[in-house]
TrEMBL record:
Belongs to the peptidase M14 family. InterPro entries: CARBOXYPEPT_ZN_1 (IPR057246), Peptidase_M14 (IPR000834). Residues 62-360 form the Peptidase M14 domain. GO terms for molecular function: metallocarboxypeptidase activity; zinc ion binding. It comes from Sphaeramia orbicularis. GO terms for cellular component: extracellular space. GO terms for biological process: proteolysis. This is Carboxypeptidase O. SUPFAM superfamilies: Zn-dependent exopeptidases.
Length: 394
């Protein structure tokens, strides 16, 4: 087994046994292997991580998982789509790893853009898988679909598959770290716990609600606003392009929610009605795919109040459309979403994201043809009725 080698379709080879604790037998019996990459890759590795027994190689294996799952995948996407996609390094993590995004750029003079980040919370493994699925879909669709072709000409897409790289890698170490949420910076003096909740660290009502200044807490917001290098990277990159970015999507799990600004109960987005309307229509689009119900609303209304989120910060920067996606599930499996749900979870969320992006695009680039605002109020009441109380921090 030690000599079991898997050759990626792009020619990158590595010892399978050194990648976490993959079983060579499982690799050999997987008939789809020659094309294995992206989502399939995620499926297989996530699956194996919960079914295989740990071997002594796992201490370095978690780093290799990231390298093979994310870094090599990004390089491969760029290699396969050289005219469309570039990789942009835009920050460093606390442990000095590079934070990268994929940018799609297809001509067009009026530069507008869509932002998507995944994996700001380490344990939410379905999120990076979704970013990979999203990129794959964009690149497959635009060649044949005139609408996608048009949208990709008018707008650049910035997609960060894993923002919290240190935390994500740490969550792959073993079962005891699987549910790690924060990044990996040391706490303040006198505190032995590590990590800041990056989604409480942004400059948006920082440190006010939905946080704990106990540095061992999972919702510790950091020493100060934007104290964390990962939050700084997004703040710098997006902040410089706030006029250009029309839509900010940040992907989490779990709970099946579409959250709009703001997390603070006393702050209301000036376009809250439109955000609700678009969110509800996106939830309808999601439901059409596999019947899953997504609830739409502000964090305090449908989940819990919070502060310092990247979504709220983006809206405060003037980016009109800002949404948090909480992907599957409803709490049955929580962060450990079973393998057979990865693909459907991505398919439905893609449909929701596509609805939002299409709305954003058409509003900017196509003359208005009227709205369906009247439906929103009714749907809102319906959605509120399915509100499920949550004690889990997502
Ligand atoms: Zn989260």
């Amino acid at each position: 087994d030690i000599f079991c080698i898997y050759l990626f379709s792009n020619g990158i080879s590595f010892s399978v046994d050194s990648v976490f604790f993959l079983s060579c037998e499982t690799i050999r019996t997987n008939k789809s292997l020659p094309g294995l990459r992206g989502l399939r890759n995620v499926e297989n590795i996530q699956y194996l991580s919960k079914t295989s027994k740990s071997r002594n190689s796992h201490k370095t294996g978690n780093r290799l998982v990231y390298q093979n799952l994310i870094t090599n995948w990004m390089d491969q996407i760029v290699k396969e789509n050289p005219d469309v996609v570039t990789k942009v390094d835009y920050g460093k993590t606390y442990e000095n790893r590079t934070i990268s995004l994929l940018k799609s750029e297809r001509g067009g003079s009026s530069k507008k853009a869509i932002w998507m980040d995944c994996g700001i919370h380490a344990r939410e493994w379905i999120a990076p898988a979704f970013c990979q699925y999203f990129i794959n879909q964009l690149l497959q669709t635009y060649k044949t679909d005139p609408k996608m072709e048009q949208m990709m000409k008018n707008m650049d897409f910035y997609v960060t598959p894993v923002l919290n790289v240190d935390g994500y890698i740490y969550s792959w170490t073993d079962n005891s770290t699987r549910l790690w949420r924060k990044n990996r910076t040391p706490g303040p003096e006198g505190c032995e716990c590590l990590g800041t909740d990056l989604n409480r660290n942004f400059y948006a009502n920082w440190g006010t609600v939905g946080i704990s200044f106990d540095c061992c807490s999972n919702i510790y917001p950091g020493k100060s606003a934007v104290s964390e290098p990962e939050a700084q990277a997004v703040t710098n990159f997006v902040g410089k392009r706030a006029d250009e970015i029309l839509c900010f999507l940040t992907i989490h799990s779990y709970g099946q929610l579409l959250l709009i600004p703001y997390g603070h109960p006393n702050v209301i987005a000036p376009n809250e009605n439109e955000l609700m309307e678009v969110g509800l229509a996106a939830a309808e689009a999601i439901k059409k795919v596999h019947g899953k119900q997504y609830t739409v609303g502000t964090s305090p209304d449908v989940l819990y109040a919070n502060s310092g989120s990247s979504r709220d910060w983006a809206r405060l920067q003037g980016i009109p459309f800002a949404f948090t996606f909480e992907l599957r599930d409803d709490g049955t499996y929580g962060f450990k979403l079973p393998e057979d749900q990865i693909q459907p979870a991505c398919e439905e969320a893609y449909s929701g994201a596509l609805h939002i992006i299409t709305h954003v695009h058409d509003k900017e680039f196509i003359k208005p043809t009227g709205t369906a605002a009247t439906v929103a109020a009714t749907l809102w009441t319906t959605m509120m009725a399915v509100f499920v109380t949550s004690t889990v921090i997502v």
